[in-house]
Amino acid sequence: MPRRRTAFTLIELLVVIAIIAILIGLLLPAVQKVREAAARMSCSNNLKQLALAAHNYESAHGYFPASKRAARPQRSWAPDLLPYLEQANAVSGAFYNLDENWWRTTGEVAPNVGVAIPNGTTTQLYLKVFNCPSTPNQPRMQNKFETPPEQPKVGSTTDYFVVEGVNRAIAADLGFTPTGDLKGVMRVITEGNTRITGITDGTSNTVLFGECAGREDVYRQGRLAATAQTNTSLPNVARARGGAWATNDNPYEIGGRTPWNLTNPVIGTIIPGTMKINNSNEWGHLYYSFHTGGANFAFADGSIRFQSDGTALTTLVYQATRSGGEVIPN
User: What Rg, from alpha-carbon coordinates, does the chain have?
Assistant: First the structure.
């Protein structure tokens, strides 16, 4: 009578392990694609909320918020939109004074950064609506060193920015000098306010918000080029400027190639690479995200679109202006 086998042989076990490994190898890319798709959808939802908040602000005031205030009280568009993002308490008189520079902790009118609220502090408050889940190192903080007695500019960061229009320096990459009105929808407060009727290029053709993710760490072409270091007395100084959601450095005109620090060996040269989506997240350059193959945009009609990194630079330029009179190709 033959003996009854009660165990696998070593060869059979190795074959089973190899099959499982192959199946896992086939499954992982699918899981990663699903995860990225979910992150991209969440990012789209964030931008949708920002666009709707901007429209609700326009409905309430008759004009869009300013992109920034370059003189006291210095701040970006974000504090103005917080009441329309169900964050009115964050900018109430007890927690944040809209008449004060965003980074102040002591002196002058009233402190902002240092005033505690239940979920943290005002300009150090991490808000998911300001951050793309595809971006690494969440939550992140900007900590821009300043020479005393000036206070460091500390604040929670965002992956989105207001597109102020087009920098004429983009001519070198376009191959021609753009003409006409190159201003975006939201501009610095001293230029006056923009009504929705002032978007004569059409709201469906004009960008309000774009992605510039990962600031203040410097990223180029999908790789970390330099970790943020803002103290110019120390080595390895690097900064993708404008990371904090409250800073007046957040918005910019697209089309520049100048890095923040010209002496840094890592980012000291003019920003390299083709000027396209996801080339660099340095201030004033273009758009940058951690999505595969492109980035999300919020348009002035409230729609959210994903545009590939192969989108023509001329198209991106035309979309950034509110009344340039350009004809955008399909």
Answer: 23
CB 297 within 8 A of CB 140: no
Neighbours of 142 (CB within 10 A): 29
Residue 89 is classified by DSSP as G
Q: How far apart are CA 217 and CA 282, in angstroms?
A: 9
Which residue has tokens 């690097």? Answer: 238
Which strand (E) or helix (H) includes residue 37? helix 10-61
Write the pLDDT tens digit of every residue in 127-171: 899 999 999 998 898 989 988 888 888 888 999 999 999 999 999
Give the angle 284-288-293 at the CA atoms, nearest 5°. 145
Which residues make beta-bridge pairs with 117?
120
Beta-carbon neighbour count of residue 43 at 10 Å?
Answer: 26
ω before 149 within 30° of 0 (cis)?
A: yes
Between strands 160-166 and 207-211, the pairing is antiparallel
For residue 60, CA distances in Å to 44, 64, 104, 195, 196 come to 24, 9, 28, 12, 12
Query: Left, alpha or beta for 86 (phi > 0: left; psi -120 to 50: alpha)?
Result: left
Please give the Cα distance from 72 to 307 (Å, whole number). Answer: 36
Q: Tokens 């407060």 sit at which residue?
A: 189
What residues have CB less than 8 Å from 62, skipping those under 6 apart? 193, 195
Quick check: 118 pLDDT over 50?
no
Give the DSSP per-residue string, 269-321: SPP-S-SSTTSB-STTS--B-SSTTEEEEEETTS-EEEEETTS-HHHHHHHH-
Give strand pairing partners of 119.
none
